[in-house]
Amino acid sequence: MTRRIKNGTFGRLSLAALGLVLASSVAPGALAQTMEAALSRAYSGNPTLNAQRASLRATNENVPQALSGYRPRVTASADIGASITDANVPGGRTSTTRLAPRGGGVQIDQNIFDGGKTRNSVGQAESQVLGARATLRNTEQNVLLDAATSYMNVLRDTAILTLNRNNVEVLEEQLRQTRDRFQVGEVTRTDVAQAEARLSQSQSQAILAESNLKTSIARYRQNVGAEPKQLAPGRPVEHLLPKSLPAALDTALTGHPAIVASLHGVDAAELQVKVTEADLYPVLGVRGLVQQRYDSTQFGDNRASASVVGTLTIPIYEGGQVYSRTRQAKETAGQRRIEVDTQRDTVRAAVVSAWGSLEAAKAQIVAAQAQVQAAETALAGVREEAKVGQRTTLDVLNAQQELVSARSTLVTAQRDRVVASYSVLSAIGRLSATTLKLRTEVYDERRHYEQVKGLLWGTETPSGR
After folding, report:
1. Which of 116, 169, 208, 412 has its CA 20 to 30 A from that of 348?
2. According to its UniProt record, where is this protein mainly located (predicted)?
3. pLDDT tens digits along 210-226
4. Where is 112: in which H helix or E strand?
5. Could you tell me the residue ranges of all domains in the chain?
């Protein structure tokens, strides 16, 4: 390291090598953690994603609730009491009757026709489940993108911090040499002051880079659920992307989970109109009743009765409430249709923006690599010229700063390329654990639905809670 500083060069530190610097500052001796491992951890343990999964399971319960409209409703009732009756009878006699009236019964109500309310409620509940599944997939995309971004931010900020710390060491050596030359009269006090000023600036940049790294580590902990440990280099996922922007747009507009969720929202809203209108239609049902009574009119009597009755309820006028709710549901359905168009425009803009960022990052990497190479050559030349008095100390300091800036630009561009590739994959709706082939158990969104759809009773969830 000392010889390299005296020669005035950093050495050719790639993003891969710089990314591993985190090992010495976070977890010495630990095995390198890959991007795939970080994404797997985020997929299985991120609170936002787990909360959305719980929301889907809650939405699944709408289906058995709607299906209950097809099933009979059974109620049981019982009563017990006491009665005392004093009666005056002809002839001046009185009689007192003491009874303990009691009994019980079972009533069964079965829906026959309810204007299509139950049928449409079931359809609405199923649309809500499908929409919730699409929302879950969209949340999964956002969580994985945030985790990938956090991963690359830690790598980038670690590399930039390393560059700045290395630059501080070089400038400290530069200042020492400048002071030695000042002692023998080769340079002036101005050269020393310039070297001191540039060193102070470099130290300030190193402090800022360290602060940025701490922030990125905190974000990583939030998104992934663990502290970063010796991160391995991240790689773009361009092999999973469409070959062109038009193809990416076609993929996004036909299958993006945000659009799919909006379309199911339209279906649910339109079915809500029919559910509300059903309150204006007649309701036909059958009621069965079985009763057992004791001591109803005299002590010791025992009466049993059973009946089956067809019921027909015809709404005539309910104050206009149902009409208003129907109009309201129609307006809501119209709103949901407009939101689909809004979501399509949002997805389209996201795809174009992410694709442009990816293309720009690729071009920037090429330009930054050329810039680094040119800056290294320029710095070496300026240093040689400074030795023979053809360049000033300020020229050397400026060339040194240009090299640091060029390398920082290259590191940032490499980070941007990886993040942009994940952003494009998210924008087209394909960023998922399955697509990335993460080594983790993939959440089965249908399993809970199948478990609860046909449940007739029980308050415990399938997980036993």
Report:
1. 412
2. membrane
3. 999 999 999 999 999 88
4. strand 102-113
5. 2-82+97-453
